[in-house]
Structures are given as structure tokens and as C-alpha cells.
Design brief:
- With 442 residues, the protein is an alpha+beta fold.
- The protein is built from 5 helices and 20 strands.
- Helix 1 runs antiparallel to helix 3, helix 1 packs parallel to helix 4 and helix 3 crosses helix 5.
């Protein structure tokens, strides 16, 4: 009995020692895990801080680059105008100068040169806004001296990706960011004389990187004007372009975008750009745009919008309308503009690289705003020619007389690609036949 009791005591002591050892081990393991979790938390925090620092650096570097580009764009606009004047001067030296000057007053010459001189002075003090205003205010005078109206040139300054909206008897044109601000806007009462209005979108939403806005398009819904545009969302790896929308009660703005995120982005396809709205004959509202491609080609998409135009319609997904399939496109299509005319839908688009003389305008036929669409341009309907190089980024609209017009941007031959300017052109467009025909200026 004593021996059995002693064995029980020994067994108990052994168990207690084992439990003590296990407790120490557990405590040690728990402490190790706690330290590991803390170290992991600290490491994650350090990584987040590092990522934020890198993002801040990337934003700063990007904004600095864009600011430089703005200044370079303005310089290029002024330089291009001086080049046009030099061409005119050569013309005067080899032809009948008196005959030319009969139609041009000395005041016209002084006005153009005065605006250029003032613009140069503002560039020198880094006042881009005033420099843009100075040179834009003399556009008509400089255009007269340039003698280029036969090509359809109506605004001899940088005005890429134009979109034209007629409101009553006034025309408003919007363009990609340049010296005129986030979204440039000019206006005209006769489609010939255009003057700068200012910056249609003075403030960007908090998610968008500054100074990087593209390809605006405006539609009127009742008393509201909606401006669709592309901007950079820097939180995406690669700084993808994304689409957003701003609203205003007047066509000249200011447009306000209070969004907290883009309405369309497609990061898996390297971003979305070139938005273009359509209100069809049934009152439906649709948005077309281009994806940058990702692992595949650039592609044009469409999706129905909600009645407000501020979001996509519920329970809808993007539908592919068109991908590049012709040799002249160089594997790239963009800048869609879907038009409903005579009971059919025509999808206008640009093909090839925008910074080259190979850029041009094509079209496809579509069964409806959501397709399907069939490419109908074995060759572009608008391409480089006399006085223009690399035309594209077209906007189709109807003037006050009921005639159809095509607005586009193009380089000056011999001055193709950055840092030269893509200037603003207007021509007539005939849609009565099987294929659209780009006509003359005027």
C-alpha cells in the first residue's frame, strides 16, 4: 500500500514536471508567435510606407514631366504658328505680294505677331494659362496669314481629339489637355472663327493624377451637360488611364466631377480611354470607348449607361464592337464615335499610331449601339494628303443648316509627332451613300 502510494506520488511528480515543461514550451512558442506577428506587422507597415513613398515619388515625377510637356506643347504651338508665317513670307517673296496683301490688312499682321510676342513673354515667366489665352485670342488673324483654310484648318494651335457640340447657334469644341488646361474649350458662332473659352474642367477628382486628361466628349441631357473624359488613376500599377464623367449646367462649364473612383477602367486590358456617348433615336444612352489592349489588341467597346449618364446601367457588361483587322490600322484602333443616321449605325474610328503620318480615319457598320459591328474600311476614308498629315480623332456632328461635318486633328506635313502640334480641322461629310465621303472645307 505504501509502495503503491509512493509510485502514485512519483507518477504525479513526473506528470507535473512534464506539464511544466510543456507549459514553458507553449509559453515560449506563444511568445515566439507573438514576436513573429509583431515583426510581420512591422514589416508590412514598412512595406506600405515604402510603397506610399514610391507612389508619391512616382506622382511627383509624373506631374513634373506633365508640367514640362504642357510648357513644351505651348512652345510647339507658338513655333508652329511662326513656321506657318514663315511659309507665308516665302509665298510673298515668290508670288504677287501685292495681290495677297490686298486681302490682308497690316492690322491683321500686327495682331497675330502681337499675340505671339505676348505669348512668348508669358512662357518666359511660366504663366501657361495667360500664354494660351494670348495666342488663342489671335487665332483668326494668324489663320488668315497662314492661308490654310482650304484644308479645313480653323484653329491653328494644339487641339487634339476634338469633340464638337452645337447648342442653339453656338458651337463648342473640347479637346485633350494642352496649354488650355485639363480640358480645352473653344467656341464659334460660324464654324470659321474660334476663340478660347478656357479650362472646361478646372478641378480633377481626388483619385485622378493632375495634368493628365484626354479625349473629352460632351452630351446634353435636358438642362445638364455631361463631359466624359479619361484620366490617370495612379494607384493602379502602371498608372492606367480610366474613364470618368463631370457635369455642368452650361456647355462651357465649369464641369464638376465629384466621383471617388473611375466609372470604367479595365486594368486587365491596360486601361480605358477615348469615351464617346451616344443618345440613340429611342432615347437610350450608351458609351463607347477603347481599351489599351493588355495581352491582346486595342479594342473598341460599348455599354449602356444609366438614365442619368453618371454610371453604367445596372446588370450590364461591356460588349466588344471592333478590333483591328486591316493592314493600314497597324494593329491599333481608337477614338470611336458612333453615329445613328438614316436608320443605320456607323462607327467612326482612328487607326494606326497617332504620332505618325500613317494615322487615319475609318468606319464600321453596326446593327445597333451594342453591335455587332463589321469593319468597312479596307482603306481609311481620311488620311494624310495635301496640307494635313496623320488626321484622326474625329467627331461627327450636324451644323445649324442640317449638314453633317467631321471635326478632326492633324499634324502639319513635315512637322509630325511630339513636340509639334495637332491642329483643329473641319470638313463636310456625306453620309448619303454606302460609304461616308469626306468632302471639302467650308
Amino acid at each position: 500500500m505504501v509502495k503503491r502510494h509512493w509510485r502514485a506520488v512519483v507518477t504525479t511528480l513526473v506528470l507535473l514536471m512534464a506539464l511544466g515543461t510543456l507549459a514553458v514550451a507553449i509559453q515560449t512558442d506563444v511568445g515566439a508567435h507573438a514576436r513573429d506577428r509583431q515583426e510581420h506587422t512591422d514589416l508590412s507597415a514598412a512595406r506600405r510606407t515604402l510603397a506610399a513613398s514610391r507612389l508619391t515619388l512616382e506622382k511627383t515625377t509624373y506631374v513634373k514631366a506633365l508640367a514640362t510637356n504642357h510648357r513644351n506643347d505651348l512652345q510647339a504651338s507658338v513655333t508652329a504658328t511662326l513656321g506657318q508665317l514663315a511659309t507665308t513670307e516665302n509665298t510673298l517673296s515668290t508670288t504677287d505680294a501685292f495681290a495677297f496683301l490686298q486681302g490682308v490688312s497690316i492690322n491683321t499682321l500686327q495682331t497675330c505677331l502681337g499675340g505671339i510676342r505676348a505669348s512668348y513673354q508669358q512662357i518666359g515667366v511660366h504663366n501657361n494659362a495667360q500664354a494660351a489665352s494670348d495666342i488663342s485670342s489671335v487665332s483668326s488673324a494668324c489663320l488668315t496669314l497662314a492661308g490654310s483654310t482650304s484644308t479645313g484648318l480653323v484653329y491653328p494651335f494644339d487641339f487634339p481629339d476634338p469633340d464638337v457640340l452645337r447648342v442653339g447657334g453656338t458651337y463648342f469644341a473640347y479637346a485633350t489637355n494642352s496649354v488650355g488646361g485639363n480640358i480645352q474649350i473653344i467656341q464659334s458662332g460660324d464654324l470659321t472663327h474660334w476663340s478660347a473659352v478656357g479650362n472646361a474642367l478646372p478641378t480633377l477628382p481626388s483619385w485622378a493624377a493632375p495634368n493628365g486628361t484626354w479625349s473629352p466628349a460632351v452630351v446634353q441631357l435636358g438642362g445638364t451637360f455631361l463631359l466624359y473624359y479619361a484620366a490617370i488613376e495612379p494607384s493602379f500599377e502602371g498608372n492606367y488611364e480610366c474613364i470618368s464623367v463631370a457635369t455642368a449646367t452650361r456647355p462651357q462649364g465649369p464641369f464638376i466631377d465629384s466621383s471617388t473612383a473611375p466609372m470604367e477602367c479595365q486594368p486587365a486590358l491596360d486601361g480605358s480611354i477615348d469615351p464617346s456617348p451616344l443618345v440613340d433615336s429611342g432615347g437610350g444612352l450608351f458609351l463607347e470607348w477603347k481599351s489599351n489592349g493588355g495581352a491582346g489588341p486595342t479594342t473598341i467597346w460599348s455599354e449602356q449607361l444609366a438614365a442619368s449618364g453618371l454610371t453604367m446601367a445596372p446588370n450590364t457588361t461591356p460588349v466588344q464592337l471592333l478590333a483591328p483587322d486591316e493592314g493600314w490600322q497597324g494593329g491599333m484602333i481608337e477614338a470611336p464615335d458612333l453615329v445613328e443616321t438614316g436608320g443605320r449605325y456607323l462607327l467612326f474610328y482612328s487607326g494606326n499610331y497617332w504620332g505618325s503620318s500613317n494615322y487615319g480615319e475609318g468606319f464600321a457598320t453596326c446593327a445597333g449601339p451594342l453591335g455587332p459591328c463589321t469593319d468597312a474600311s479596307a482603306q481609311p476614308i481620311l488620311s494624310s494628303g495635301t496640307g494635313v498629315s496623320g488626321p484622326g480623332g474625329a467627331s461627327i456632328f450636324t451644323d445649324s443648316s442640317g449638314s453633317t461635318r467631321i471635326a478632326f486633328a492633324a499634324w502639319t506635313p513635315g512637322q509630325v509627332g511630339y513636340p509639334h502640334s495637332r491642329e483643329f480641322y473641319l470638313r463636310r461629310l456625306n453620309l448619303s451613300g454606302g460609304s461616308p465621303v469626306v468632302g471639302s472645307a467650308g
